[in-house]
Amino acid sequence: MSQTTNKIMMMEPALFHSNPETMETNTYQAEDPENISPIHIQAVQEFRGLRDRLVEAGVIVVTAYGQAASPDDIFCNNWVATLSDRRMVLYPMLAKNRRIERRTDILEFLGRFYEVALDLSAEEQAGRYLESTGSHWLDRVNRIAYCGLSARTNKDLAERWCRTFEFEPVFFNTANHVGKPVYHTDVLMYIGSSVAGICSSCLLPEDRTRVLDKLSRHHDIVDLSLEQLRRFCGNSLEVRGTNDRKILAMSQQAYNAYTDSQKAALLKHVDEIVYSDISTIETYGGGSARCMLLELH
User: Fold this and answer.
1) Could you list the residue range(s) of the whole structural domain that residue 207 is in?
2) How far from chain centre, in Å, is Cα 183?
């Protein structure tokens, strides 16, 4: 397996705003103001800005279009994921109003290229959730799945996924700045070809050394602070651009929060850091750049 890809899908929102059904578990999103129209307009501009920056860097971007009843479908990497052998997996979602993101037309499009290897979506009815690459960060080359447990990441389902695809699970518990579990693993960490970023201070002490030891066997580590976690430094994704150049995609807020020494450390492993202002999306959606990118392996 390759860790990275040069092809992604992004979902332009039809009506972006804060999702009240996710606020209990996502402590990073703000409530909507009375008039959400300016929020949507700004979010569309931010979406296109990030997309265009990636295209300029040589990343192949497939753009799909959202539906008005799906305030979070801009974060299109939570209900489906692709594998490098032309297979895909469908996942169960916690928020009921996010389950309609599994649209027939998108499934038909993906079905031209990928076969469904595992469909876990029915687990929603039993109150068990595993929200795709948001829930488990995959070290694809070394076949390790890092899973921060939360209301959106069920351990039994993650173990079943790992047995099916022959990955070793690494489970851990977290606490963010208000003492709640970080809702998605891809908010607190990312894994590239040879470098990984992780907010180790949000891992519970009994898990921290074990996880860092495992991660450091195959990757150099850039450790992130709790404040950098809040500014979405962990919500980044390595992709490939023109001439197979390694690109680390993140938000402008995240880029500004990295120290100069951390940026220098990252640039030993990637050719370019691509970033764009998506602050409205971050504020009201509670997610950032990586959440917006569905890898097409």
Assistant:
1) 7-295
2) 11
